[in-house]
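User: Structure tokens for this complex, please. No commentary.
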Amino acid sequence: DAGVTQSPTHLIKTRGQQVTLRCSPISGHKSVSWYQQVLGQGPQFIFQYYEKEERGRGNFPDRFSARQFPNYSSELNVNALLLGDSALYLCASSKGTGVSQETQYFGPGTRLLVL
Amino acid sequence: AQTVTQSQPEMSVQEAETVTLSCTYDTSENNYYLFWYKQPPSRQMILVIRQEAYKQQNATENRFSVNFQKAAKSFSLKISDSQLGDTAMYFCAFNFGNEKLTFGTGTRLTIIP
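Assistant:
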């Protein structure tokens, strides 16, 4: 079975621009989470979606938004990019059975560089 | 606040040796799940092992095992017979009963041939 996939793998943007990152979960998984990993640090939670509804949100500004589609894929949008948004953005999927402490499986990430 | 601490930024061991990575945490929750993830230079975060806090028996996956000390809030990872492919960043992570994983800052492990 295919794992979590993300696109694009790399992205270069300039300050003030907007970016959309995409994620497809493992087949059969209904929950998608997004994390930001700044160089040298552990990932920080941004959002979790389950059945197209937001289940959780981390401490990120409103410039960050996301959505989940009927096929359970997801998009993360970041508006008005800042230099500090440069990071690896990781998507993780889980079965979404309603148990919060499920194992999350990660994709390869999208490396975003803001100039 | 729920925090996760990995006090070893970097470690290196000779191939075939055993290495233990440390992780401590702080939470007032009683039921939670604990994970070790591996992130090689390819960036993909790979699940190594998982432990349920309510289980007293330590989890084992082939060469990987954990030493979970709930009272001490300690969760270490032991890698036996280390291999070159074990070279990676290792993160401990916790789910404290909500939707998110809380990660430590990571330990960079290098296996020396």
